[in-house]
Amino acid sequence: xxxxILIPAYKAKYLKECIxxxxxxxxxxxxxxxxxxxxxxxxxxxxxxxxDHRIRYFKxxxxxxxxxxxxxxxxxxSYASGDYVICMGDDDKLSTDALEQYVTIIQKYPNLKxxxxxxxxxxxENKHVGITxxxxxxxxxxxxxxxxxxxxMQFIGDFxxxxxxxxxxNGFYKLPLAWxxxxxxxxxxxxxxxxxxxxxxxxxxxxxxxxxxxxxxTKIKLEAINIEYKWYKKFIATLQPNNIVDYxxxxxxxxxxxxxxxxxxxxxxxxxxxxxxxxxIRWLFNKKKYHLNYSVLGLAILTTLKSNKQ
Length: 310
What we know:
Its EC number is 2.4.-.-. By secondary structure, the protein is an alpha/beta fold.
């Protein structure tokens, strides 16, 4: 069983830490694919300081950029030769036994297309600042979607996908700023046979004020959220539960989906308001264009006021 670990790279600051965590794996059969997205930072000297045959380094001639960052995810995927892929940020890390843990869960559930591991959140100084909740070892697509809609945290780097399946669906699902791309790709992979979870934390996600989710253009985020919402509605309509638990869970998903997207839009606008309070006027005038309503705007204002008080 071979893994391809993908790093669509742009930032230099934590890249060495990221690479070191991967090269220290207790499970030996893997390749590390790094694709430099035409970065202005000196990634070359970091990567070239290693003489490890498992590292495969490529450079894009043209920058994909934040809006089209999923293009670089898929460029990494195009070079992969492993049976399974993990795609992670250039500032994130893996535990030393991450691949070993995946081997164990894959051997237990060999017919799935997707696996998931628990995550520890770290700050820029590598301090542990949080942990994602534990999950059932096996989940259907229904349980998986419901908990995510209810707010369960997850990241692209805490998933492991079957390579052939990702290629079958033309790679990671592309949305602007990768906003929802990890979720949709995971749902597609889990649709037929579900997902298996590792409850030992194996992924370290770095909370960082310069991430795309915190700095990306709010208008583009809202456009992506609206595309994601339409996708959800179509996807949910294709689901056909074959037992009472899945049927009832699907009913809950349908009941909660609207409120979930109200919160998602409100969070995007809130980040904008924190930098420029007067921008609420712009959102009022563009309410129809971005499919906003007073519930979204009211929640955005309320959460902004709470943040300011803190």
